[in-house]
Amino acid sequence: QVQLLESGGGLVQPGGSLRLSCAASGFTFSNYAMSWYRQAPGKERELVARISSTGYFTTYADSVKGRFTISRDNTKNTVYLQMNSLKPEDTAVYYCTTVERGRPGVWGQGTQVTVSS
Fold it and tell me: What per-residue confidence (pLDDT) applies to 51?
């Protein structure tokens, strides 16, 4: 059974940091690129970051460049999103996904990130 399980969300003050994790199971993790998306209330889902299957290549949304870092550990079947200098506009539910033919495939259940003082 293919499964993605996000964790690490929570409430943080502006300027703070969080590290999201996404544990994968049921498929050969190292064969897939992975992505993080987010969805804020009343807004469409937005691609935040993507990482190649080997971890050598990464891309970011302009809104998070220089603040967020995507990484992966293929020995642990886990992808991470390190989020620094968080802003209120980063508040959203964050999802990890597999990348299949350039599009999101399997989705996790999401983890809530709230940036507020």
Answer: 98
Q: What is the pLDDT of residues 54-103, one digit of tens each?
A: 999 999 999 999 999 999 999 999 999 999 999 999 999 999 999 999 99
20 and 9 Cβ atoms separated by less than 8 Å: yes
By C-alpha distance, which of 12, 37, 39 is closest to 116? 12
Q: Are 12 and 115 within 8 A, CB to CB?
A: yes
Q: What is the DSSP string of the chain?
A: --EEEEE--EEE-TT--EEEEEEEESS-GGGSEEEEEEE-TTS--EEEEEE-SSSS-EEE-TTTTTTEEEEEETTTTEEEEEE-S--GGG-EEEEEEEEETTEEEEE---EEEEE--
